[in-house]
Records
---
Amino acid sequence: MVRDLSRSLQELEDWYEELDKGFPDWYRRLRKKAREIFRDKEQKGEPVGRYGPDFNLLQYFPNLSSPRERLETLEALSREQREVVESVGVDVKEKERLGSHLQQDTTVTYQRLLAREGIVVETPETAILHYPWLRQFVHKLVPIDLDKYTAFCTGYSIGGALIWVKEGVKVDLPLQACFLLETEKLAQLPYILVLAEKGSKLNVLSGCALSPTCSNALHGCVTEIYVGEGAQVTFNLVHNFQPGFHVRPKVGVMVEEGGMYIENYIERGKPESSQLFPTVILRGKNSRAELRSFFFARGNSDMDIGGGIIFTGEGSRGEVISRAVVTGGAKVKMRGVLKAYASGVRGHLDCRSLLLSEKAEVRAFPNLSSTRPDAVLTHEAAVGKIEEEQLYYLMSRGMSKEEAASTIVRGFLDVASGLPEPLLNWLRTLISQTAEEVF
Amino acid sequence: MLEIRNLTVEVDGRRVLNGVDLTVERDETHVLFGPNGSGKTSLVLTILGFPQYKVITGSIRFEGVELIGKSIDERARLGLGVVFQKPPAVRGVRLGDVLRFLGGNDSLLPLLNLPDEFLHRELNMGFSGGEMRRTEILQVLAQKPKLAIFDEPDSGLDVENLETVGRAIDQFLRERSGIIITHMGHILRYVQADFAHVMLNGRIVCSGLPSKILAQILREGYKWCETCPGAFRS
């Protein structure tokens, strides 16, 4: 069944009113409100988000795709599809994985949990019907009126996942979630809600990529993550998008006492534009967060990447680390925000970029603010090319120019050494690509 | 082994070497003295082929091969090794990474009084003067060049480090050719050198026995060298 293709916002509204009919009132109202905000912002000509380049959202259709058949196994994917999902870290054989969740366009086509005890994975649509108490969490961290993209993602989202780990359940193996874009002009807008209860441990590998059949689409997403007391959540986000694609994931995180949140973001493709600014609220005493992003901006990509930590818990600590290798005609903005509102806070911001082309451009925006005299916030930011002095120095030890450049880039990305193996493999590829492209 | 003839070099249009002649034979160790700014480091970086050192005239032949026109790494692979006076810090690149590339192993560390943890230290990041000298020498020992050039290996060293570094260089140069650049000559307490030269204003103005030249410099300073009647090489 092919869904309504109408461009008209009213027709789109009617379609969503119909879709949302079975949901509780609060959820219907929330989504309707988000759509109103979007339309309002659109009509008022309020085009830009807080960050990132603007584009016309109305050229994409969130309800365009036809439903897919469910898969028995990930190995049933075509060779081309497998290559794509593997490029963002998905293991189709599901070795060393807690489970898998695959969404193709707007349909969840595969979901399997290898250990079910204490872990729930469902589509948000099902979860909202099953668990009325989710109301206290859904769309509470990422404000629906943050910008027109967030309102759009909230009001028109289809699919996504609730990942809920119950108290004391600890899993080391990653749960792999993959969002595959296959239909031209589709706005793929999943909603992801992660609940890690007290003392739990969860590792999510979320990969978003596109099928070779698709050349122009939008990937938007709202992700909200609640890290309970003493819980630990690692969220690895890997994207592989190409020119013609806009990427707008919105991530909000709340961490309770003694909890820890680690996020690693990698963009391995060269999207038309990408904007990502996960924001973590360290609410609990001694809570911690580490936000790391690594990307290789090439072609004409316009990327606005960063992260923010708001420290409201006494003794909370956090770090934002960004590394960008920038070449071609790419434009990159690197942002980092640390705000301290509690005593004993320690925050550090470290954003560096290697600018390898005359036509590329990098800007760094470190932003630190504190209302507490005993909070310590620090930052390091550097924008530059590979220093000739370093290159010659390593060449004097007998390394070729390419070997020396690779060694320097590898050193530049050295902070990534704690990443999971699939991400490290990708970084190694990035390093050799850099040396090849630049010399 | 190394034959430099009439070498004139400019950096950004400014002359830094002005007709240098120098010959180093196999297994010889030469010492190069000179005040600050006399062109010693310029000579090293020109031999090594740093692009900003533009050769105007002259030749640099190493084992019969003309070096001018060759890249830095080609020169290194022919058998040239340099201990830098001010090596750059390279973030994220570990000393162990470079040693592995050079085919060296951990056994060299005790020779320079370096604990194993140095293998994990980032190159020249936060190193003291002594640590920098010792890790530089470590890399060159691992590189095993046919001709090693030591640019001010004794600067910024305390007495213990000077002895460690001096003995390591001396041992290394027993079967190799070397050029040691030194300002004050402290390293010569430990290293047996065959010949010494004095550089002034981008030119070698005096050559001879290291002990005689050093004694003369210590007695009269480099001012005297400007009036030196000529070589007293014996």
Note: Chain B is about 30% helix and 30% strand.
---
Amino acid sequence: MVTSGRGWRGYALLGPAMAAMLLFFAAAMVVLLLLAFQRVEEGQVMSGLTGANLVRFASNRYYWGVIGTSMKLGAVTVVISALVGYPVALAIDRIRGTTVRGLALFLLFSPLLTSVIVRSYGWELMLGDHGVINTILLDLHILARPLRILFEFSGVTVAMVHILLPFMVLPILGVLSQMNPSLVEAAQDLGASRLQVFLRILLPLTIQGVVVGCQLVFALSISAFATPTLLGGGRVQVLAGLIYNDVGQLDWPLAAVESYALLVLALATVLVFNRLLRLTARPA
Amino acid sequence: MKRKITRRDALALGGAALGSAVLAACGGGGLGSSGGGSGKKNPVNVRMFVFLGGNLGVMPKAFAKEYMAAHPNVTIDIYEDSNLVGYPKMVAAKRTTPDQPFVNLGFFNAQTSVLGDTDDMWNALDYSAMPNSKDIAPALRRDNKKGIGIGADQVGILYNPSVIPSAPTSWADVWDPKYAGKLSLFDYWWYVVFAAAKLNGGGLTNMDPGWSLWRSHAKQIRALVSSNPQWQDILSNGTSSITSCFNGTGLQFKKNGAPVAYSVPKEGAIPIPVYLQSVKGNTKDQQEVCQDIINEMISPKWCAQWAETSIEAPANVKSQLSAELSGLPAFSKATIEKLLPIDWTIPAKNNTEWRQKWDQNIKANI
């Protein structure tokens, strides 16, 4: 039980973060909310409130298409990251040597040590019509003409998975490291197959790590800007790109509406994943 | 301001380049020759907006260095960005801190200049106190005196001669199906929509034929780029072999090793004037210095240097250009006679609507 003294100490520790959130996030969101209801005439933001920006956004199929692309990018990135990230987490967890484990973690997190712009240009070199992948496939006569990966949804997805994989692996690794290894050994001793061990022991015990990883990867994917912009070639339009364009076009009220749409999507996702977390929580 | 650049104006402007057969800048325009900041004792700091990319920062930086040496009380900070990205920041600063502008002066293209007129962004310049202004081609002097021209670029077609051996000669080549999947454009490159409208019975005041054509030809586009380095990259690595581009930017790509050549469409290239503007909200001292700086930058010497590094026609009729530059197709008499006149108030006024049409009709369908 938490004593009142401890409670106050908790609030005091939370204080700076709460103050920063209120000052820099909540206040900005209030300003953004007011902006969303301001009129625009010939590119000028006018005084007076209106719901026209909201209607303009909600009634246009184009914006729904962009929301759809953002959600699709988030979903595909999550699925691939989970499928790739889980075995990676298992492998790293089984490494006993400190040096090798450190090296594996360094390699995993290395994408985060470079600028997103540099990474994206690196992917351009890899995925381009005359890039490394196409050159190898053409030289080996596997392809007759270059695969179109760059400036396509597939290229953006590959780059997103590369960048966001650590956010999937880390939570799973955290859960794995707390798991009692004798549980797996006991199951194996009792004759369980590898698939049974995975489905009945590993997965149920690590599902919370997977859900947290999915939550992080999805939230970061749907708000990604640089990678879809640089590698999408205009073909992969996401909400963050739309906001950037409208700010540039000085249509700030519409950009404010789009920002709130992104926020609502992110919050809805967090709620869904939180619900999943509760459903998958093990009884005490 | 409703002024258009007519063919006659453009011809007069191009004449300056055509008449320049000798490399080397002409004399005159020594810094500190006019009043402005030279006699001021108060320290004055100004921030200058300079285009980002290629060699566009070379002349402004060289100028700033020389100007500060001649005026020890003046410091010039350089802010490098595209007008597209930097101008909204200027608007934001004007709305929040009108007496502290984001930049104090700078280089702005025609469309941003007109947007600035609408936003009341610029200070009027006192042309009578700027001795070099009398040598600026009439087409690049502004009726409202809110800024003055330093040069003019043009938009035409850039292509890879090793992939496309015979040069594209018409705007229609840009949307020719034989180049499907090989066309790259800068994001929101409304010039090709205008060209399509022009070739199909429309124009700046009736862009519908252009929007309609590009809606059905959107698949032609391989990629929309968002920066000059990215543009140069995909033209260099063979992902794209044709684009519509500024002559100056394209030739800078070429200088950097990109396998590209510039072609002037037979229907005419699109002239793109570049202006120098002083921003509202400057202090009296800053305004005086800004006007002096602008006067110095439009001198024959600095105007020629700007033209050489940005590969543009110089605004100062006394500027002399290298034979290499004046011999370029973009500066030929025939090209200048055919430039398509643009009333820049129209793109500025329709900026938001056109951008939405670009996104929804073209970008969404590529």
Note: The radius of gyration of chain A is 23 Å.
